[in-house]
Amino acid sequence: MSRLWSAVVRRLTPYVPGEQPRLPGLVKLNTNENPYGPSPRVLEALRAESADTLRLYPDPNAERLKVAIAGFFAADRILPGQVFVGNGSDEVLAHVFLALLKHARPLLFPDISYSFYPVYCGLYDIEFVTVPLSDDYAIRVDDYGRPNGGIIFPNPNAPTGCLLPLAEIERLLTAHPDSVVVIDEAYIDFGGETAIALVNQFANLLVVQTLSKSRSLAGLRVGFAVGHADLIEALERVKNSFNSYPLDRLAIAGAVAAMDDREHFETTRQAVMRSRDELISAMENLGFSVLPSAANFIFARHPQHDAGTLADALRQRSIIVRHFRQPRVEQFLRITIGNDTQCKTLLAALREILAAASA
Ligand SMILES: Cc1ncc(COP(=O)(O)O)c(C=O)c1O
Description:
By secondary structure, this protein is an alpha/beta fold. It has 2 domains: 21-37 and 263-358, Aspartate Aminotransferase, domain 1, CATH 3.90.1150.10; 40-260, Type I PLP-dependent aspartate aminotransferase-like (Major domain) (Aspartate Aminotransferase, domain 2). The chain is 37% helix and 13% strand. It is built from 11 helices and 12 strands. The chain has a 5-stranded mixed β-sheet, sandwiched between helices. It has a 3-stranded antiparallel β-sheet with strand order 9-10-12. A two-stranded parallel sheet has the order 1-11. The longest helix has 24 residues, at 262-285. It binds pyridoxal-5'-phosphate (PLP). Pyridoxal-5'-phosphate binds at residues 32, 88-90, 114, 154, 158, 184, 186, 210, 212, 218, 223.
């Protein structure tokens, strides 16, 4: 630890992202990326934007993108002034924690959830209390009935993949009119219904989404939040006190094209959902129990096989999945839904590993 570090940095415990090894032939099922490429219209937009204009700063407000996002949610009557955009939903979330979730009362989130949340609390010195998931790993709205300075969770939850129905979110919002409730919908397009439909009804609701998963743009780094204009203004105040240009020209152009190409979005998310359902049945046939998933990953355990040992055996076969050494979930593997070939390779490897272990 350097004596030159600030006191804040000394006490930080940073988030550890899933590894990104660059090995040929690797079956990479550890960070919930989309197995299909982004829309060809995105690539075209990026090429068109790679021009002399890169010498100029981008629009600090990314207005074109806010208009495209509002347009995508036109049926929910969303206006561009209700949209905030940032460099990946991680950056959007960081601003949310500082702008809307730092209060005298503790922030609430599930005990099993996105592990970046406690990291932001450490960075911004936000008190938090974790609320245990039920024995079947579900979020129970009634367990949040205590004084709080805000509530946040992913829906579907990560790393479980379990979905909370919209009616339950509505019940939570009604019960906590004086708290900001943040629904992190990184995976909502793989089987859930977005809470953006409730934004005009509840001024305390903020919904965060990303283009990293269902629009296959993890490498472009674009995320957004939708909520009441007052909540958005709070986020803009933090953003404009931190970095005026979080989205570069390429990110804005690519993200607009991605939001506009509904057909590519539909076909690829349907393909992922189909593969997920097939993978779940095949894994259950191998004896795994798999939590119900509305995401582009599954959370699975085998009653007779240790998850850490299985993850190591898969790794020896060049397949990487995510294993969390964390209470309550250390016997689970989180497996991203790959394309058909990747799913087949995974299943063949699991069959072989299980057979070798019982021989
Ligand atoms: C629940 C959840 N929220 C947010 C993110 C951040 O995504 P990004 O920063 O790529 O938008 C992730 C990434 O895996 C996630 O799992």
